[in-house]
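Minutes, project check-in
Item: structure for the 225-residue chain
Input as provided by the requester:
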Amino acid sequence: MSYKTCVTVAEKTPRKTKHILSKALKKSEYAEIRFDFLKPGDVPEALELVKNSLKRCVCTLRPKKEGGKFSSNERERVSILKLISEYNPLLLDIEFQTLKKDKNLQKYVKNSKTEILVSWHDFKKTPSMNELLRIQKNMTRFSKNIKIVTTAKSFIDSTKIMSLYNPDNKINLISFCMGEIGKHSRILCLYLGSPFTYVSLGKPIAPGQFSLDEVKSIFGKKKNR
């Protein structure tokens, strides 16, 4: 089976971001740049340093209330999201709640011709199947690229998340569970249609995240059977 990975790059300086991104893209098809790990004032410099690689990058600026590191005000965050959109990355990850509240941001990104990855996370649990389907349907108002990530408290939670994959849906879905219990869903999602799975180069950035080498080892073993 062919599979693709997206290495999460979460560094605190622009030059370190460029260095690790270059390293990541030599080993992985895609990378996610977590701009929220940088100081807000350092983002423009980082964008200039990595601009030639952005066609293979998912750009993320996650606020603290959504599990990220960005702690400044929302007005500044939206301003930075608009700036990132002007660099036309592969995908710009914007939270579902943010898009619902800010029509101006929606319009701005649309005019920039940058594809949005609408994301929704639940860091405490996995909602009911009906609730997940309702959320997914509402997210499609903003983009065909959808990311739904929850926290697994049981193996049943992973089953619910995997059930969101439907070949009849004309969306690009990335969906899996965080945490050790849901770790296997980060691999299973690839079999069900996810365009890639998020990995690290070493220490996990998110709960239950595999390293790139671990994923390669898993699929290497399968090929050898």
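Outcome recorded: The first strand starts at residue 5 and ends at 9.
No further action items on this chain.
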